[in-house]
């Protein structure tokens, strides 16, 4: 198969769909890989490394989209990229379609086979291609929140761990999955007072076993969320209903009653955000203020540590990229129900249940005739 890797074009997005190591593996399996010149330069993955791995460098993204049978990316395609896709071509990348009707429509019009990293599943009920970036974003959320709490970033001026004789900051993490667990781990490491809220008692039990008395676990409902948010200096939004728009767990009215100079980091922004006052921001301009509360809502947080993130993502995507290249989409999707769960748009039809609010959904297996 001819596999194409365009350079990412989102604001401050330096990740790459394939590392040289994964290119090498594809080439060893008899595939051809074309990579846009300079795709990895910013993170030390030079053109020379790609050439040595067996890739052919291409100058223009148009040529990659025109020639490749499968496009491997990181972020969702921007509108003019969607317009370069064609029927039968595989697109394998993050899509986050539920809160994005425009991208959904463009992908439907393309006729391409659109497989979203974030809805591929595993046998333990996890999301193996979202998990590595959730680990990164969860860890980063505490760094970002700590900066925002500093005066020069607009915050109230609190050090997360305090110092002897002063209280630590209160950190509330809503959603105790991969993002939430990693956020809690960093916040505990900095000696903040940390509470995780989740709707899943099983999840809370696991967190309790993992962190013991260093972490407060709270069952999430309207009342407990309100109490935690109003007390917190830093709130991390980390909920997810896979494939669907994020539930709004914190209302505008609640934000109005928060402490002035407190901080919200909405990691769930890529699925539309879990605070009513959230809208997506960029690394160039990451924050804004509503009612005295600093909002950090960057939709591609892992892009800031793009080298770590590229390797972490590629470690997880490699077997799926290889399966798609070796077998083609029909056999790869038919053989592996977990990869099939990643199919969001197929030949113009929506195939993921989380997209039902955007149009008729056909079960993925039915759509491909499996
Ligand atoms: N902004 C960014 O750069 C990035 C964003 N993300 C996003 O972060 C979000 C979280 O991802 P993961 O931690 O991997 O998901 P996950 O599935 O591991 O965890 C989500 C948790 O939310 C809980 N939950 C669902 N509804 C809830 C509610 N109403 N109240 C409390 N808890 C609730 C679930 O029980 C689950 O434990 C996703 O939207 C993901 O796409 C992930 C990576 C990067
Ligand atoms: C998961 C995601 O949206 C990201 O890594 O940017
Ligand atoms: Mg994102």
Automatic annotation (TrEMBL):
CDD domains to which the protein is assigned, alphabetical: L-AlaDH
Chemical reaction(s) catalysed: L-alanine + NAD(+) + H2O = pyruvate + NH4(+) + NADH + H(+)
GO annotations of cellular component type: plasma membrane
Highest rank taxon of the organism: Bacteria
Binding site for NAD(+): 134, 198, 203, 220, 239-240, 267-270, 298-301
Catalytic residues (UniProt): 96 (proton donor/acceptor), 270 (proton donor/acceptor)
Residue ranges of every copy of the Alanine dehydrogenase/pyridine nucleotide transhydrogenase NAD(H)-binding domain listed in the record: 149-297
Residues annotated for substrate binding in this entry: 15, 75
EC number: 1.4.1.1
InterPro entries for this protein: Ala_DH, AlaDH/PNT_N, AlaDH/PNT_NAD(H)-bd, NAD(P)-bd_dom_sf
GO biological process, one term: L-alanine catabolic process
The UniProt record lists the keyword NAD: yes
Gene Ontology MF term list: alanine dehydrogenase activity; nucleotide binding
SUPFAM superfamilies for the chain: Formate/glycerate dehydrogenase catalytic domain-like, NAD(P)-binding Rossmann-fold domains
Keywords: NAD, Nucleotide-binding, Oxidoreductase
Pfam families in alphabetical order: AlaDh_PNT_C, AlaDh_PNT_N
Enzyme class (EC, first level): oxidoreductase
Residue ranges constituting the Alanine dehydrogenase/pyridine nucleotide transhydrogenase N-terminal domain according to the UniProt record: 4-137
Gene3D superfamilies: NAD(P)-binding Rossmann-like Domain
Family: Belongs to the AlaDH/PNT family.
Matches recorded under NCBIfam families: alaDH
Protein name: Alanine dehydrogenase
Organism: Rhodospirillum centenum (strain ATCC 51521 / SW)
Organism ancestry: Bacteria, Pseudomonadati, Pseudomonadota, Alphaproteobacteria, Rhodospirillales
């Amino acid at each position: 198969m001819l596999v194409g890797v365009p350079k990412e074009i989102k604001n401050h997005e330096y990740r790459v769909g394939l590392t040289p190591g994964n290119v090498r593996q594809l080439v060893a399996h008899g595939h051809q890989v074309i990579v846009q010149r300079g795709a990895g330069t910013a993170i030390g993955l030079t053109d020379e490394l790609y050439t040595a791995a067996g890739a052919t460098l291409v100058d223009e993204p148009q040529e990659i989209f025109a020639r490749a049978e499968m496009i491997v990316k990181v972020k969702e395609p921007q509108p003019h990229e969607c317009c370069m896709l064609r029927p039968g071509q595989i697109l394998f990348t993050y899509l986050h379609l539920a809160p994005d009707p425009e991208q959904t429509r463009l992908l439907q019009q393309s006729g391409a086979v659109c497989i979203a990293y974030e809805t591929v599943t595993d046998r333990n009920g996890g999301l193996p291609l979202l998990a590595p970036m959730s680990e990164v974003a969860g860890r980063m959320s505490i760094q970002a929140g700590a900066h925002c709490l500093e005066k020069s970033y607009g915050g109230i001026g609190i050090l997360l761990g305090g110092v002897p004789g002063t209280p630590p900051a209160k950190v509330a993490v809503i959603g105790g999955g991969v993002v939430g667990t990693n956020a809690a781990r960093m916040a505990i490491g900095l000696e903040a007072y940390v509470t995780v809220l989740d709707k899943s008692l099983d999840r809370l039990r696991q967190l309790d076993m993992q962190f013991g008395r260093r972490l407060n676990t709270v069952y999430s409902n309207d009342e407990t969320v309100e109490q935690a948010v109003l007390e917190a200096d830093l709130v991390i939004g980390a909920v997810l209903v896979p494939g669907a728009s994020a539930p709004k767990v914190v209302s505008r009215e609640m934000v109005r009653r928060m402490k002035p100079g407190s901080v919200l980091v909405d990691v769930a922004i890529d699925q539309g955000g879990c605070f009513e006052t959230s809208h997506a921001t960029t690394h160039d301009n990451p924050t804004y203020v509503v009612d005295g509360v600093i909002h950090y809502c960057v939709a591609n947080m892992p892009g800031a540590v793009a080298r770590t993130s590229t390797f972490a993502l590629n470690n997880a995507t490699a077997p799926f990229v290889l399966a798609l290249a070796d077998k083609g989409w029909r056999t790869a999707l038919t053989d592996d129900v977990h990869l099939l769960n990643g199919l969001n748009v197929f030949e113009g039809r929506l195939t993921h249940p989380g997209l039902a609010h955007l149009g008729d959904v056909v079960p993925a297996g039915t759509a491909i005739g499996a």
